Amino acid sequence: MQSRILALVIAASVACITKVDAQSDTARGPEIGARVRVFAPDLRTDRYIGRIKSLDGSVMVLDTGEVRTVLGMESGPILVDQFRRVTIRLSTIQAIDVSGGRTARNAVVRGAVFGALAGALLFGLGSMPEVNPDANDFMRGVPVGLAVGAVGGAIIGFGVGGERWVPARVPR
């Protein structure tokens, strides 16, 4: 009975994920105002993430200081313009991805799995008596912990979310 409840809770958590379909047109390049992720290994090993402010035949200017909200908190500081604007030569760019919008699918699944494991451990340990504990005492608390942890982890994963990236043509 408890395993059926757990299966229903996990199924309901996964079913509540909303998928935002973005138009993925990799034949076109990114446009001004698009949120992009740029890989230019000659300049830096990690990717630049920001909005395109200007784009001409030789350079792209990104605004990397966009403030994002995660779990109701702002995820970054507002920087001075000279530090938040980055000029990248188009010849140094190897790959560009355009944002396909917010997604929570992977974050919800990861949160449900980690939450279920943590909940099972905590509830299992919490159900053990102080005197002469054994494995059966631990296993008595595991199913409830799995369910509670999966729901809590899925809710946190949904709040954290993520961003889906679609490959785009590098403007030359």
Strand ordering within the main sheet: 6-3-2-1-7-8
Domain module tally: 2
Instruction: Give the total of beta strands.
Output: 8
How would you sum up the major sheet? Answer: 6 strands, antiparallel
Number of helices: 4
Structural class from helices and strands?
Answer: alpha+beta
Query: How much is the average pLDDT?
Result: 82
Question: Helical amount among residues, as a percent range?
Answer: 25-40%
* Overall geometry: elongated
Task: Write the element-wise H/E pattern from the N-terminal end onward.
Answer: HEEEEEHEEHHE
Outline the structure in words.
With 172 residues, the chain is α+β, with helices and mostly antiparallel strands. The chain has 2 domains: 2-16 and 105-160, no CATH class; 35-100 and 164-168. The protein is 38% helix and 25% strand. The chain contains 4 helices and 8 strands, in the order αβββββαββααβ. It has helices at 2-15, 81-84, 105-126, 135-160; strands spanning 35-39, 48-55, 59-63, 69-70, 73-74, 85-89, 95-103, 162-168. It has a 6-stranded antiparallel beta sheet. Strands 4-5 form a two-stranded antiparallel ribbon. α1 (2-15) packs parallel to α4 (135-160). The longest helix is centred in the last third of the chain and has 26 residues, at 135-160. The chain starts with a helix and ends with a strand.
